[in-house]
Structures are given as structure tokens and as C-alpha cells.
Amino acid sequence: xxxxxxxPAGPAGPGDPGDPGDPGTRRPLDHIGRIQAxxxxxxxxxxxxxxxxxxxxHRVAGLLTEQLCVVYRRFxxxxxxxDVLAALRRAGPxxxxxxxxxxxxTMVTTGAMTKRIDRLERGGLVTRRRASDDGxxxxxxxxxxxxxLIDQAFAEHMRNERRLLDALPPGDxxxxxxxxxxxxxxxxxxxxx
Length: 193
What we know:
Elements: H1 31-42, H2 50-74, H3 79-90, E1 96-97, H4 99-106, H5 110-122, E2 126-131, E3 134-142, H6 144-165, H7 170-187
Helix pairs in contact: 2-6, 3-4, 3-6
């Protein structure tokens, strides 16, 4: 198998090496570019080009999460607690879901969900009650304080996401959304709500 170049080909972008033949377009390698270059040097027989996409997506996701959590913390919430309150608020009146539904809507285990609900309940943001149709089941609901908090936090969260996305030109953002939607459908096929 031929060795693959340490630097990805294509048009220069933020952190890309640019045109190797034109020293005026060279830019410093970003974190992932440095990793690719090191692997290409150490294991030249392995195609490291997938890291250019997967590694950058992973890194961008981590950095975005850090920026999103800044807003959650302003409201005294962790990322997971924000997710629980948001899932309840999206449910519509009476803003209730069973713990299993919450786990599905936030993609966490029921054990982790229990800890989140416990903390939110202690904070007066949610309540738990027996399900009326099943005495063994439980229902988690937003309190008025919980609804007020998530409404404020969600509005600020959307302003923060807009700020982060505005770093891209609008056309690029729309193109990226289309690409990610298509790719996500291949990895996680869409399902009815």
C-alpha cells in the first residue's frame, strides 16, 4: 500500500497546511494535523486520512461541549441536568415523562438518570409521583420553578449556540448541517418520534 501524505490534500482552511508549493499559504497544523503527521511518520503504511474528519469532529464536539457547559453552569446545572429539564419541557403540558422515557430522550442509562433526577428533585426543579395507570411506575414532572429555569436557560443556550455557529459563513453552516444530517442517518437511522 502506498504511503499517505502527512498533510491532508485539498484547499487550505483553518489549521490546514495550505498549498505545500506556496510558502505564503502554509498555516500551522492544528491538533489533529499534528497527530496525523506523527502517525504518518511512524506508520506510513496506514491511511491516517480518516482522522482528518473523525478526529476533528471529535475535537470540535469536545470544545463545543465546554462552551455549552459555561451556560449550563450559569444556571446551576450540569449538562445532564439541563438535558433532563429540556426533555421535560419539550414534552409539553403537563411536562412529565417516565424515567425510562427521559433516559431515551437524553440517551443516558437509567442509573445515571436516577442520579440526575435526585439532584433536580432536591433543588425543587422536578417532582416524582406514582403513575396513575401503573402504581409501580413513576412519573417525573417539572415544577413551576423548573419550568421557569429551563425556559431561561434554553433561551441563553440558543444564543450561545448561535454565537458559536456564527463563526462559520452561513452557506458553510447550512452545508455542514446537510452533510451531518446525511451521515447521521447512515449511522443512526431516523425513527418516528
